[in-house]
């Protein structure tokens, strides 16, 4: 991953680190590496989303471990030790600066440490469609609902999952959401 970090300009790497700190502070649900990757690629740099996601995971692990260990900025840079010779100088400078400015703000409560590793719901989008025909059936006129869920996994990576439902399936889905809302009202 260190060789891929060299590809990322300092300003984009700083933005990635800031988003990771915000995620660790539970201010944002996750790090949108896909969007950041598109912006990096638009600036003319060849990097793929998987590599950027791996870098985000490594930096997130670094920051969360440093927070749990209550490391100072110098202790963090020293702990990087051998990696400093592998990491590009601009990456070490960004890590040092971000940790110095925002590192102490990471709250690592006992609840957060003991929390189950599940994803966090970010957004939902849906649309109604009608399949008019296919290559095997001339006249379908079949309504369906396409649902897209945006979820942040425990490491903070935001992913989208899409699925289609028939109208009866969507009605059941909607009924279950109403039941959840009713239960939440009692809490």
TrEMBL record:
This is COMM domain-containing protein 6. It comes from the Eukaryota. Scaffold protein in the commander complex that is essential for endosomal recycling of transmembrane cargos; the commander complex is composed of the CCC subcomplex and the retriever subcomplex. May modulate activity of cullin-RING E3 ubiquitin ligase (CRL) complexes. Down-regulates activation of NF-kappa-B. Inhibits TNF-induced NFKB1 activation. Pfam families: COMM_domain. Belongs to the COMM domain-containing protein 6 family. Residues 120-187 form the COMM domain. GO terms for molecular function: NF-kappaB binding. InterPro entries: COMM, COMMD4/6/7/8.
